Amino acid sequence: MTGTHPAPAPAQAVILAGGQGSRLRPYTDDRPKPMVEIPGTGVPIIGHQLAWLASEGVTDAVVSCGHLAEVLQAWLASADLPLRVTTVVEREPLGRGGGLKHAAASLPHPDRPWYATNGDIWTRFSLREMAAFHHERDATATLALARPRIPWGAVETDEFGHVLDFIEAPPSPYLINAGVYVFSAGFADLLPERGDHERTTFPRLARERRLAGFPLPQGAYWRAIDTAKDLTEAARELAR
């Protein structure tokens, strides 16, 4: 009896690294957001991402640059990288969907599946497991789902309004888009030339049951680096 072989995991990826990072100022005054270093590592966010992708079997990455692209390109040119990297520059803002489509056009194997990640995500989990999940569901697109901690303390009450407990930074009851994706080969054709795929392509795929959501495994590390506080927290978690 012959078993079905899982599809090989993607070996190519797009990193969306064109954002302004205005909430990370002054760190982003002279560099794009993915070039901000995680304190204590001496390595920018994108360096951690490329190392992670390479460890998951990715051999080719396309980095989509925008804001201060030349700073990112100079670092990529001088760094000892664990995979082949191509950069594409958005000369005018195309929106997230347009930027993704523009970058995907430079993937070395347009007829094969690919990963994508936002340039401000610092995470570690098995992309191969996510790719297998995507394949099993015959999805066109799969997004990783995280359950972030609410940044405030929560108050628990009973039906009479008595306060029962205080819970410091509880996990959110909702899953959120973790900014890491697996896409089938034909996905790039469904993206808008400009605009946001999360308002167009994703809702359409969801209606057609062709969009899957992969919950991050229990205990997987995930953080979006949006503010200076996120950098501090990341450094603290790293030290731990």
Automatic annotation (TrEMBL):
Keywords of the record: Transferase
Keyword Transferase: yes
Keyword Transmembrane tagged: no
Xref: Gene3D superfamilies: Spore Coat Polysaccharide Biosynthesis Protein SpsA, Chain A
Superkingdom of source: Bacteria
CDD domains, alphabetized: NTP_transferase
InterPro entries for the chain: Mannose-1P_guanyltransferase, NTP_transferase_dom, Nucleotide-diphossugar_trans
Nucleotidyl transferase domain location: 13-239
Molecular functions (GO terms): transferase activity
Protein name: Guanyltransferase
